[in-house]
Write a structure and sequence with these properties.
single chain, alpha+beta, Alpha-Beta Plaits, 2 domains, ten-stranded mixed beta sheet, 7 helices, about 30% strand
C-alpha cells in the first residue's frame, strides 16, 4: 500500500521538478473541506483557481499536508506546489497570490524545497484545537468560531477522559471507519482542556474553552468524535470506563456522533526534512 502511495507522489516530481512549500491559514465556514469535490467550493479548488490566474497556466500540481473536513478551519497548515519551471519572482509570489485569494484564505510564507521533499511523509505531528463554551446565553455570531454545550458539565471527569486518550491506542471506536482501512492505531502525545483568551467581545461568552490534542496522525472524524465523547463524559451520559472499552472492543459500541465541524481548528503542523 505504501509503495502505491509513494509512486503517486513521485509522478508530479518527475514531470515538475521545482517545488515550493507554503504555510497556509483559512477559515473553513464557507468551504466543503480541503479536497476538490464536484460542484463544491473547497480550499484546494480555490487555491488552484488563483494559481491559474497568477501564473497564467495550468501546468502545476499541489498537495496539502491535511485534508480537513467541511467547515473545519486551519491556522498552521502547509501546501506544496510543483512546477515545471523555476520561479524567479519569489519575493513577489506570496503577495500576488494573497491579492487574489479571498479574505478567508491566506498564504503566510513560502520557500523553495528540494525535489525529493515529501510533504506527506515529512509531517511528524499535528495539533488540533476544538473551541466550545458552556453558556446559558449564546449569541448566533459566536457560532462561527465556537460550539455551545448546554447543561451542567463535570470538568474534572472531562479532563480525566482527556488523559485516557494519551498513548498508542486503537481508535476505531472514535472515527469514521473505512472498508479499505485495517490499521486504526494512532499515537496521541497530549490531550487536555484549557481556557481560551482568544475570543473577546460583546457577542462572545465570558468563558470559552478548547480541547487541544497533539498526535502523530489522526483518522477521519477522530478529533470530533473524541470531543463528543468528552462532552458525554462531562454530562454523565457515559462513564469513563467506556473510553478504554472502546479501545479494546470498538465494534461493541454505537458510533459516536461527531462534534460539529465549526469548532475545530488545525492549529499546528510540525515538519521534518526541511
Amino acid at each position: 500500500m505504501k509503495l502505491i502511495s509513494n509512486f503517486k507522489f513521485l509522478v508530479p516530481l518527475q514531470s515538475r521538478p521545482y517545488s515550493y512549500l507554503f504555510s497556509i491559514s483559512y477559515f473553513g465556514a464557507r468551504y466543503k473541506g480541503w479536497a476538490p469535490q464536484p460542484n463544491q467550493q473547497t480550499v484546494q479548488r480555490r487555491l488552484e483557481r488563483v494559481l491559474r490566474h497568477v501564473m497564467g497556466h495550468e501546468d502545476f500540481s499541489l498537495i496539502g499536508a491535511s485534508r480537513t473536513d467541511a467547515g473545519v478551519s486551519c491556522i498552521g497548515g502547509y501546501v506544496q506546489i510543483f512546477l515545471r519551471e523555476k520561479v524567479d519572482y519569489m519575493n513577489t509570489l506570496l503577495p500576488q497570490f494573497n491579492e487574489h485569494l479571498p479574505q478567508d484564505i491566506r498564504l503566510n510564507s513560502v520557500q523553495e524545497v528540494a525535489t525529493d521533499f515529501n510533504l506527506i511523509q515529512s509531517v511528524t505531528q499535528k495539533s488540533y484545537r476544538y473551541y466550545f463554551t458552556n453558556s446559558l446565553s449564546f449569541h448566533p455570531f459566536a457560532s462561527a468560531f465556537t460550539v455551545n454545550v448546554p447543561g451542567e458539565l463535570n470538568w474534572e471527569a472531562m479532563k480525566e477522559a482527556c488523559k485516557l486518550f494519551i498513548g498508542s491506542h486503537d481508535f476505531k471506536g472514535f472515527c469514521k471507519p473505512s472498508e479499505n482501512k485495517t490499521d486504526y492505531v494512532r499515537e496521541v502525545l497530549s490531550a487536555d482542556i484549557f481556557t481560551s483568551k482568544e475570543f473577546l467581545g460583546q457577542y462572545f461568552p465570558e468563558e470559552i474553552y478548547y480541547f487541544e490534542i497533539t498526535g502523530t496522525g489522526f483518522l477521519h472524524h477522530q478529533v470530533r468524535m473524541m470531543m463528543s465523547a468528552v462532552w458525554q463524559i462531562g454530562s454523565q451520559e457515559i462513564k469513563l470506563t467506556e473510553i478504554t472499552s472502546r479501545f479494546d472492543f470498538p465494534d461493541r459500541f454505537e458510533k459516536l456522533p461527531p462534534a460539529p465541524s465549526n469548532g475545530l481548528v488545525l492549529w499546528e503542523t510540525l515538519l521534518t526534512n526541511l
